[in-house]
Amino acid sequence: MKRFTKLCILLSFILFSVILLSLMLGTTPISISDILTYILNGTTGNHSMDLLLAKMRATRTLGALLAGMGISLAGILMQSYFRNPLADPYLMGASSGAMLGVVVYGLLTLVMTSTIGTSSFGIVLFAYAGTMLVMMLITAIAKITRQISTLLISGIMVSALASGFTSILVYTGDILGGDGEKLHGLISWGMGAVNNLYWNQVGAMALIIVPFMIFSVIALSKNMDANVLGDNYAVSIGINLKTFKRKLLIISSILTATVVAFTGPIAFIGMFCPILARMINKSAKHNELIPLSLLLGPIFLTIADILTRPGVVLPENANALPLLCPLSIMGAPIAIYMYTKSKNFTM
């Protein structure tokens, strides 16, 4: 049996186990037997537990699953675009751009005396606009310099710039009063969370993310393999580089904006899951790399979500941690290691 097949089976088992743990753990533990009873009969026999499973545990678990897949795929596409294993939607500023767009939307609805966040379409649309704006700026910088260090620093600085404008808009909302407190709440949301998702938001994420997952595996993976070998080789086998790279940029931006619009920025998943997939599979073929990353992303993000919950690691009376905390602890050391080894690392 091929290494790739064995890894898919193993990671699928781990993902299933993590999903089960996500449904079980929290301030109110739920047993496996209760979960199975609910799946088979539509109820556990306890109304409060039914609501907890249906309205909270299931939505945050599926949200983590979809967000992990979306941001992992966005990371692969971004790494292929820049031919840089350290390219990541969070580090390169795409997530900060999406967040800026969401805050702009919130401020506009506040000024127009509308309720913030009533339109998921509006939130996603402004997130797209913010992401595309940042990615256009990063792309322009990439055309000027090919150095990994310069590109990464530029991404971090653009991210800081977007975050600065976001903070200004948030405090402007506070000055305006009224629902400005809701806008200020985006500061904590800006560190990532999947615990406040509704079923319609989970459905919207699935409607956008799943088709792009299938399209990327079927239509982009071979061209991504060729792109890694350089422009000359890609052109020699008939790839229209301008069109191909535009697809990579647009799809990665859409995926990032979709995830950020509903969960806030998700740090490091888009970077270290593709890297880990390459390392464990010992192959950089994208028709294998993409499926493995789509399994690793949800595993790490769901584990991170479990660790943020009161009653798991934290005391039951504590406030939930943002996802940025465990994700940074997992991702930052990998980023440092990969940066020091980047000259020897191949895509």
TrEMBL record:
Family designation: Belongs to the binding-protein-dependent transport system permease family. FecCD subfamily.
Record-annotated membrane-spanning stretches: 57-78, 90-108, 120-141, 148-171, 198-220, 248-277, 289-308, 320-339
Annotated Pfam families: FecCD (PF01032)
A GO term, aspect molecular function: transmembrane transporter activity
GO cellular component assignments: plasma membrane
GO terms (BP aspect): siderophore-iron import into cell
Keyword Iron among UniProt keywords: no
Keywords: Cell membrane, Membrane, Transmembrane, Transmembrane helix, Transport
Subcellular location: Cell membrane
Membrane topology: Multi-pass membrane protein
UniProt xrefs under InterPro entries: ABC_BtuC-like, ABC_transptr_permease_BtuC
Record-given protein name: Transport system permease protein
